[in-house]
Specification:
heterodimer; A: about 140 residues; alpha/beta; Rossmann fold; four-stranded parallel sheet; 4 strands; about 15% strand; B: about 160 residues; Fructose Permease; six-stranded parallel sheet; 7 helices; globular
């Protein structure tokens, strides 16, 4: 099973996990959350994420799921993931992506799973009223 | 337009800079001044990814930064200059670069930084000395994470 570490600004990730688990079911293993507070130094953030990675293990593949592109959670995750061959860093996470990750991580390899999560995320973003109008619903 | 903002932020390019200061000051160029980053290809690549696409990124060590900053005083671009610590600012000032105002965005907690000013500014005794040295050079110093925050008079806070 692919391991997942969620790294976000504040407790966003913890709430996102809770919400996604409500739909995809509780994730009993292979999942860690790291909430980044504005008070934490890069050094401490690096330590906390590294410890979570160590606890998860990287053998079966590891995905860092982070929030905004270019934000500290993504930046620090990238520098750690650079040293882990079997890993990927995804940014821009939303609930569809979390659910996609939870539902598919047991039966896909890393490359396929990453592709699936990113595609599911992109497909989940739209303005719905205009979309419905186009389809004459 | 000369240098639009000098900022000390140990996270360098991150959300507050990219989403806050860059649009507010219509920044075209971000200059990262740090001897460590200058040598670190991985962190440079991460920052290249983090920065908005239409922004030019310049990486400089302290030595090359002196001429760079003097030349950009009359630049047609809006330049945002990032330092990771106060010591580097003192070094640049001592090399003859004139800085009118300095924004302190983030100096996060580590051992010895026992003076806390708000969410993201932690100072050691050494930092206090650097701040006083910077002020002596005629630099106005403010603490402010994002443009919308109320500026904090840091010198006043450390002199209390």
């Amino acid at each position: 099973m692919i391991k997942i570490i969620v790294v976000t600004h504040g407790d966003f990730g913890a709430y996102l996990i809770e919400a996604a688990e409500g739909i995809a079911g509780a994730q009993k293993e292979g999942l860690k959350n790291v909430s980044i507070s504005p008070k934490m130094s890069l050094e401490i953030i690096n330590e906390v994420i590294s410890k979570a990675v160590e606890e998860l293990g990287t053998q079966e593949g590891l995905i860092f799921m982070t929030d905004m592109p270019g934000g500290t959670p993504m930046n620090v995750s990238l520098s750690i993931a650079a040293k882990i061959e079997n890993s990927a860093v995804i940014c821009g996470i939303n609930i569809s992506m979390m659910i996609s990750a939870f539902m598919n991580r047991k039966n896909m390899d890393l490359e396929k799973l990453v592709e699936k999560i990113v595609n599911d995320g992109k497909r989940s973003i739209c303005e719905v009223k205009s979309l419905l109008k186009k389809q004459n619903i | 337009m000369p240098i639009a903002l000098y900022r000390v932020d140990d996270r360098l390019i991150h959300g507050q800079v990219v989403e806050g200061w860059v649009p507010e000051l219509k920044i075209n160029v971000i200059a990262v001044i740090s001897d460590d980053i200058f040598k670190d290809e991985l962190r440079k690549n991460i920052m290249r990814f983090s920065a908005p696409e239409n922004i030019k990124l310049d990486f400089l060590n302290l030595e090359s930064a002196v001429n760079y900053l003097k030349e950009n005083i009359n630049s047609k671009y809006n330049v945002l200059v990032l330092f990771s610590n106060l010591k580097d600012v003192v070094g640049i000032l001592e090399s003859g670069v004139e800085i009118k105002s300095l924004n302190i965005g983030g100096m996060h907690y580590s051992a010895g930084k026992n003076i806390s000013l708000g969410k993201a500014i932690f100072l050691s005794d050494e930092d206090k000395d650097y701040l006083r040295a910077i002020e002596k050079k005629g630099v106005k110093i403010e603490g402010r994470g994002i443009p919308q925050d109320t500026p904090l008079d840091i010198l006043e806070s450390i002199n209390l």
